[in-house]
Design a protein that fits this description.
Helix content is about 20%, strand content about 25%. The protein binds iron/sulfur cluster.
């Protein structure tokens, strides 16, 4: 299944929730803004949890082109 993860860097507040839930997928860059380090680093359910747990809804996740979060 093809996973597509997008982060709206204008909206990210650098809380780090995403890298807590899916540490092999998300990290914070030197500006304290989230980046995707490996879209397939964690199981999809963890990535979806991370996206749903983002306090500013900065993360979008699509599976095979279908928007999940
Ligand atoms: S959970 Fe959302 S606001 Fe927090 S670092 Fe990740 S993308 Fe940014």
């Amino acid at each position: 299944m093809a996973i597509d993860i997008a982060i709206n860097r204008e909206v990210c507040m650098g809380s780090g929730n995403c890298s807590f839930w899916a540490p092999a997928t998300f990290d914070l860059d030197d500006d304290g803004v989230a980046i995707v380090i490996d879209a397939t680093g964690d199981p999809e359910d963890k990535v979806i949890l991370a996206a749903q747990g983002c306090p500013t809804q900065a993360i979008s996740v699509s599976l095979d082109g279908e928007k999940i979060v």
